[in-house]
Design a protein that fits this description.
This protein has about 300 residues and is an alpha/beta fold. The chain contains 9 helices and 11 strands. The longest helix has 18 residues.
Length: about 300
């Protein structure tokens, strides 16, 4: 569809939330590239633009409000430094669906701060102050197939721009910037770590790939391959991968997580928890302690 007709279609839908989607997808993510295997490439990203405002300072930590630009949206985040002088090892945190930056920081983020890591927890698109909507994969593909972009691809880019913020901070140890992702955020975390070789390792909580079936439609195959973490997790090696999953997780069955883990290279470790539901905040304390002991070795 030509752009002039796309804009006309938007005008006819004034008053509907569909207008937002049409206008958003009329401007595809220009940085999208694919390698010879069809996997996303977001290399050569320009310098990230962001603002940094002091929010809170205690004896244990200092927290800043970060707002950074990422293709058509301002992503809101919390940057928290632990006490002590830098440079600090760091995690950028991609929360699960419905989880805000505050929720991620108050749980996983705070525990990582206590291990000496700085953290950048973001409001992913569709969440908190970042806002917007997250379409279903089917709806996302409908727009992708007509050249109007993909929100799922953009959310990978948002995570990488969070990495770029940490890379730009003078008190961050550039050799020790890790990604942590939970559930939906874990899927984007896998892809981000597979794309960006400067990410030092991945902590993956209650997540998995999709394992999409083979597609006869080449455009569908191109799109699904580009957003399936199963196609990226093997690229993280030789950087460490730590996956944690609840045995009876009712949201993402452990068998799917184990399949994704089997595709990862070494070094890697899979830890099964026998209580809890889905997501870090439901993990038993002994499970959280085990995780923190492992990531402390990364510092």
């Amino acid at each position: 569809m030509e752009k002039k007709y796309l804009i006309l279609f938007a005008v006819l839908l004034v008053g509907s939330s569909i207008v937002t989607w049409v206008l958003l997808w009329s401007n595809p993510l220009s940085e999208v590239r694919a390698d010879s295997d069809g996997m996303l490439l977001f290399s050569g990203r320009p310098a990230v633009n962001y603002t940094k405002t002091l929010l809170n300072e205690t004896g244990d930590s200092t927290t800043y409000k970060i707002v950074y630009q990422s293709h058509g949206r301002l992503v809101h985040a919390l940057l928290t430094y632990p006490k002590g002088s830098g440079p600090h090892p760091a995690f950028f945190i991609l929360p699960g669906a419905t989880v805000t930056k505050e929720g991620a920081q108050n749980g996983l983020g705070k525990d990582l701060n206590n291990q000496g890591f700085a953290t950048l927890a973001i409001d992913q698109r569709g969440h908190g102050e970042t806002g917007g909507n997250i379409p279903t994969i089917e709806y996302d593909f409908e727009f992708y197939s007509t050249g109007r972009g993909s929100v799922h691809q953009e959310m990978v880019y948002d995570g990488l721009r969070g990495f770029d913020v940490l890379w730009s901070e003078p008190d961050i140890d550039r050799n020790k910037i890790f990604v942590a992702g939970e559930s939906m955020g874990g899927r984007f975390a896998i892809i981000a770590a597979g794309i960006e070789p400067r990410i030092s390792g991945a902590l993956l909580l209650s997540t998995s790939g999709y394992g999409f079936p083979a597609q006869d439609n080449p455009v569908a195959a191109e799109y699904l391959n580009s957003i399936d973490p199963d196609n990226y997790i093997g690229r993280i090696s030789p950087r460490p991968v730590l996956m944690v999953h609840i045995k009876d997780d009712q949201v993402i069955p452990i068998s799917i997580a184990e399949k994704t883990f089997s595709l990862a290279g070494e070094p890697k470790e899979f830890f099964t928890l026998f209580s809890g539901e889905h997501g870090y905040d439901t993990y038993p304390q002994e499970g959280k302690d085990w995780i923190m002991g492992k990531v402390r070795e990364w510092a």
